[in-house]
Task: structure prediction
Amino acid sequence: MTNQPKQMTLGVIVGNRNFFPDSLITEGRQDISELFAEMNIRPIMLSEEDTKLGAVETWETAKKCAALFKQHQDDIDGILICLPNFGDEKGIADTIKLSGLQVPILVQAYPDDLGQLIPSRRRDAFCGKISVCNNLYQYGFPFTVTELHTVHPKTDSFKKDLIKFSSVCRVVKGLKNARLGAVGARPNAFNTTRYSEKLLQAFGMSVQTIDLSDIFGPAEKLKDDDSRVKERLSGIKAYVNTEGVPDPKLVKMAKIGIVLDAWMQSLDITASAIQCWDSLQLNYGVNVCTLMSMMSESLLPSACEVDITGVVSMYALQLASGTPSALVDWNNNYADNPNKCVLFHCGNWAKSFFGPEFKMEYAPILGSTLGDENTYGVVAGRTPAGPFSFARVTTDDRHGVIKAYVGDGMFVDDPLSTFGSRAVVEVPELQSLMRHICKNGFEHHAAMNASHSAASLTEAFETYFNWEVYHH
Result:
């Protein structure tokens, strides 16, 4: 099972006012076309045969552009408003209204050349952008602006804007269409992973449920020599070093993996959260951490302890970065360093988080009460130094809202002698983050990603979902 990112598709509105030079619009369209080709972004925009210069500046051209966008409404991830000159504020807003699209919007305006403030080269887009944004605000359309008020499309600054905006588009579209699988009941001891399905549904995220008995039953009926079991067993052994793990335990993992895959495929599940203890160990005799790791590595994130909002957090980070996420415990202080801590989980992190040394083991903590022989299946390894983003989405049922916190830090290579999936991270002002988590009722779980994606999540959550976001 895989869920690979697809090519970004943006609807492009080139704004024009007819008393500005035609050459500015032609140059702008060319700049955007070349930039999109370089960044592998598919543009949906009017041709020069559709309207004058392929731009929008009247009610009639707005209708034509809106009709084009409607034809591609299932493909368009976001809208870029390009202003080579002042632009027509009303035509641009009308285009979006008529299109019916509810996608992120980025507003870009060209800078003027101080030596060319002459009729043949003057743009006035610095001013026009303010008018366009005013109209978007009046019409009730949330939108994103570039880091610099005016910026040329061919600059590194705008390329960074576009990379960030593409991340925002993926997060918004992905979460609005997320189908989340809840496998088993929440462990009774974990009130912390309670959540509201109804609040999630209000933003397009639906939860599909299945009882563990409906997983165990079909898995037990599979024969050891079934070709599907052999194939899945080979996949597990190719994914992680299984030396020392009893073969019957690996076969059990293969069987339950087959059933999980079939259920997820039948309902188009995009992310899952599993009751990973203690029914699995007591009634089936393995941990499913490796299967969850494999799903997350394939960009089908899977979270522990039926933590549905935890896997929403994982999925959001994955959408922003295009790389796997993991669910972690904010687990241990790191000696007396107030800005470092240890992240830990039994062992379901995607293998992308590990260096070359990682393997399948049993879970010693769970094994102390459930029996070591019943807890084989964890992936044990250490995350090397690199970029680190964290995020947590939660449904605040007492106030009827969804809220989140996000931030960036670094994985570090400081010494750590322990077991399981583990990492040491450094986060500036970590103690203030911990205070915020505790005082605002957030869970002990967080999602992590090997990127710096906090800014993209903040923009997506605040601007397009209107969630309360703490950006650390």
